[in-house]
Amino acid sequence: MQSDDRFGADISLLQSILDSLVVGTISIDLEGAITVFNEAAARLMGVPKEQALGRHLL
């Protein structure tokens, strides 16, 4: 269970770092689905982060 807690904390920290960037950051997986979409990307694209995550670009 400790490793699960640690993993969750690491993910939270990484998301906070991504959201603090002023540069829009988008990442996709091998199928073209958006896996990372930070707050700056949401502002630039005019799309809420919750709507972008999981959508396919390719």
Give the secondary structure arrangement, pairings included:
Layout (H helix, E strand, L loop, with lengths): L1 H19 L5 E3 L5 E4 L1 H7 L3 H4 L6
Mean pLDDT: 91
Low-confidence stretches are none
- The proportion of strand residues reads 5-15%
Principal-axes geometry comes out as globular
Number of domains: 1
The sequence of SSEs as H and E is HEEHH
Q: What is the gyration radius calculated from CA atoms?
A: 13 Å
Strand order of the largest sheet: 1-2
Q: Based on helices, strands and strand pairing, what is the structural class?
A: alpha+beta
Helix content: 40-55%
Helical segment count: 3
In total, how many beta strands? 2
Terminal Cα separation, in Å? 37 Å
Main beta sheet strand tally, sense and closure: 2 strands, antiparallel
What can be said about this structure in brief?
The protein has 58 residues and is α+β, with helices and mostly antiparallel strands.
Explained architecture:
The chain is α+β, with helices and mostly antiparallel strands and 58 residues long. It has one domain. The chain contains three helices and two strands. Strand 1 and strand 2 form a beta hairpin.
